[in-house]
Amino acid sequence: RKENCYTPEVSFILEDHEQTLRNLFVEFAKGDGTALYNELKSAKLLSYNEWKMLTRDTEMMNELDFTVRDMQLVFSWSRTRVIDERPMQSKVRLTQLSFEDFCEGICRLAFSKALPTEEEAYDAGCEDGGEMMINMIRDEPLEYYAFVADRADDQDLRQEMWSQVNQLCTLVVRTVENTVSKNKGNQRMKKKKVAKENYIDESEAKLLFSLSTSGGVQSAVQTAIKLAQTKMGVG
User: Cys staple from 216: which of 95, 124, 178, 211, with CB 3.0 to 4.6 Å?
Assistant: First the structure.
C-alpha cells in the first residue's frame, strides 16, 4: 500500500488530475437510490454502489482486466479503518470512501489495469495512453482484446506506478468525454476555458452521473470485447 500509493510521484499525478477525480467523486457521492442511502449515506462519502456505478460508467470495470470481483476488493481495501464511539458514524466510515480513500482506490485500480506505457502511446502517435486505448476500442477491437488479455495477468507493472496512474486518469478523462459528447444533446454544457483541456469539469461529471442513474451509458468497451470474441469464435 505504502510502496504503490503513497509516494511523492504518485501524489503529484493525483494532484495533477485532482479536478477530474474530485468532480467525479462529488457527483457520484450524491446518492445511489438504495434504501441504505436514507440511514447511512453521506453526500461527502462514496458508497459501495456509487463506487460500482462510477467504475462501471467510466468503463474501467470489464470482464478482462478489472472485474466485478476486482472492483469489490479495491473498495474493501481502500476503506479507512476507524474507531468511533458512535455506532452509526463508525458504520458510515466502514461502508463508504472519503475522497482520500477514493484516490487510493484509483491507485489500486491502476495497478490492476492493462495500460500502455508513455513510450507505447507516443509510438502509436497518441498524446497519452488514454487516447491510444480509446482508438483501439473504437477502431481495432481485436487489437484491444489482445492487448488487454496479454497484460491482464502481469504480476509486475511495465512502467513506474506514477506513470500507470497517469495513464489510467487520461483514459478516464477521454472515456467520459466520449460518453458526454455522444449524449449531451440539449444539455447545456459549461464551456472549458481552453479547448481540449484534459480534465472532466463539473458539467461533464453531472451529465455522466445523470446518465448513470438513468441507465443511459452504453459501454464501448463491452461492445469491443463482444466484437473481438465473435471474430475469434469465443463465448
Answer: 211
Alpha helices in 96-160 (DSSP H): 99-112, 118-123, 129-139, 141-151
Task: List, for residues 140-185, the tens digit of each pLDDT value.
Answer: 999 999 999 998 778 788 999 999 999 999 999 999 999 999 887 6
Distance separating alpha carbons of residues 187 and 193, to the nearest angstrom = 18
C-alpha closest to that of 197 among 12, 23, 9, 2: 23
Give the other-Cβ count within 10 Å of 74's Cβ. Answer: 22
Helices (H), the chain: 2-5, 8-16, 18-28, 35-40, 48-57, 68-78, 87-95, 99-112, 118-123, 129-139, 141-151, 161-183, 202-213, 220-232
68-83: pLDDT as tens digits: 999 999 999 998 655 4
**DSSP one-letter code for 177:** H
Q: What phi and psi values does residue 62 have, to the nearest 5 degrees?
A: -155, 180
CA distance 46 to 73: 15
3-state secondary structure of 46: strand
Say if residues 169 and 17 touch (Cβ distance below 8 Å). yes
Q: Is 114 in contact with 65 (CB distance < 8 Å)?
A: yes
**pTM of the model as a whole:** 0.87
As averages over each run of 10 residues, the pLDDT of the chain (235 residues) reads 76 97 96 52 83 96 94 90 50 77 96 96 97 97 95 86 97 96 65 62 95 88 94 81
- C-alpha torsion angle, residues 68, 177, 181, 51 (rounded to 10): 30
